[in-house]
């Protein structure tokens, strides 16, 4: 039985639940429940506060857990990062009042900086050879300069609107973060085997998320050129259409290339282009 810890409620919950669901690990999330067994996979799901997960994984109360990289780094617990999961992306940044001039990171020398991540900030300042007065506060960091508690903040930023609405500007990115799976360093053979099964599924799900399946109709004389544009997993599938001189071409596209390729395809006479999400991708 593999014990998987996820955040009980917060910004990681939905992504964690979706990932397990896409991996076909089914369980009921009863209200107020702390632990629930999976119905079709040898696992148990624990619902915890994200900050507690690194310690529980280190102690073996949970075998693996899903947290933000920022929480992993701040906790300094003896657990390993097993896999980056690609959701809940954000950055940790230093921000200062909008009206202050900024010419470089030396700005922070001897300043008072409010943060909920004193460990990460200490490491960053040390790396830059700077000394500052770190005020460790647990929430609403962004109001600290406005009430005279600090000269600057280091906080999580996603869209930047929280900083903006508090009269702050982002001046340095300290680190980039996303959801990661962390694991206990001494799992026994049975747990490792279950984890491998889960990772195989996670890989298939994550791989599929970056790709789309494309189907299109094209005039036969342009097939060769179209195939050159479409990367495909091996080579695209070409099927004759009932209409003479036309074929249907199927392939897999990297989502990030999507628009550039679509334009070229249209220029080559492609019609009826369908872009379909892929659920799992095993290679
Ligand atoms: O209750 P529990 O302790 O479990 O949860 P929590 O309140 O500590 O964490 P939660 O749910 O807020 O965030 C969990 C994780 O999500 C974080 O550790 C990050 O890894 C990740 N994440 C991604 C974020 C954000 N995006 C985010 N925008 N965490 C927090 N924020 C906050 C940020 O603190 C700031 O107040 O959102 C605000 C900034 O957002 P923008 O869009 O205005 O820039
Ligand atoms: Zn937390």
Write the layout of secondary structure elements.
Elements: E1 2-7, H1 13-22, E2 35-37, E3 43-48, H2 53-59, E4 64-68, H3 69-75, E5 80-84, E6 90-97, E7 112-115, H4 118-127, E8 133-136, E9 152-157, H5 161-165, E10 168-177, E11 179-183, H6 189-209, E12 211-219, H7 223-229, E13 237-240, E14 246-254, H8 258-267, E15 271-277
Parallel strand pairs: 1-3, 1-4, 7-8, 7-9
Antiparallel strand pairs: 2-3, 4-11, 5-11, 6-9, 6-10, 12-14, 12-15, 13-14
Bound molecules: phosphoribosyl ATP and zinc ion.
Strand content: 25-35%
Number of alpha- plus pi-helical segments: 8
Give the helix level as a range of percent: 25-40%
Q: What's the CATH topology label of the largest domain?
A: D-Maltodextrin-Binding Protein, domain 2
Q: How many strands, what sense, and barrel or not for the largest sheet? A: 6 strands, mixed
Give the structural class. Answer: alpha/beta
Distance between the termini: 27 Å
Task: Just name the CATH architecture of the largest domain.
Answer: 3-Layer(aba) Sandwich
- Ligands and ions found: phosphoribosyl ATP, zinc ion
Integer average pLDDT: 95
Radius of gyration: 24 Å
Contiguous uncertain segments of 5+ residues: none
Q: Helix and strand succession?
A: EHEEHEHEEEHEEHEEHEHEEHE
Could you say how many structural domains there are in total? 3
Name the CATH class of the largest domain.
Alpha Beta
The total count of strands amounts to 15
Full CATH superfamily name of the largest domain: Periplasmic binding protein-like II
Global morphology: flat
Tell me the strand order in the biggest sheet. 2-3-1-4-11-5
